[in-house]
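Deliverable D5.2: sample structural annotation.
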Amino acid sequence: MNIRIKYTKTGPLRFISHLDMMRYFQKAINRAGLDISYSTGLSPHQIISFAAPMPLMMTSEGEYLDATFNSVTTSKEMIESFNRVASPYAVIKDIVILPDKAVNSMAAVSASDYRITFKSDSDNALSEEDKSRILSSAEKLLDNETITVIKKTKKSEALVDIKPLIFKLIVEDNSIYMLLATGSRDNLKPELVMEAIMKDAGLEYNRFSYDLHRLETYMDDGNGGYTPLICAGSTF
């Protein structure tokens, strides 16, 4: 049975790498006594795949993984069994069973949304004037014909226009909300958007001056919009 799991990564786990999160889930699933399936061969491993892994320094309440189980009880019982042995910063929020034809979460991802808030109690905290300039630039950034940034990879770097990959960008409650393209085909990191905003505001980019929180991870809904990955399955 193919299961999709929605989980959180909050608090101090922002300093934990994706590889460590994979190890965490493998051990917690075993500790919870869930009947997960293993691959065959000389080195059996749990059949798990993660959707759009997060980098360091980011928290989230909308992370996903797909896993294959030999048997299941109910969504409620499996959530409770896992969360009893889990870290309070990485708990399961929802579990659904996927239909046979469902695309795996890694391939299905098409967008994610984020909320950016500014730090106020650290050496990197911005002045009220600088925050006001950043928020003002964020409000009008999409009015530009193009939004060019330097996008770096392990092998190269190139100047790219990221505007087509920004689906929504608004300012609310002194924070910035953005809905961005995510996935293997088109992928835009929110840090690049913040870099463009701070450049437009005439400020030097500082990743440590703000906190980045992912709200949800989405797939195409078939009608030109987006729906959370959890909607591909049903509660059992």
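Annotation notes: The chain has a mean pLDDT of 95. The radius of gyration is 19 Å.
The annotation will be released with the project's public dataset once the embargo ends.
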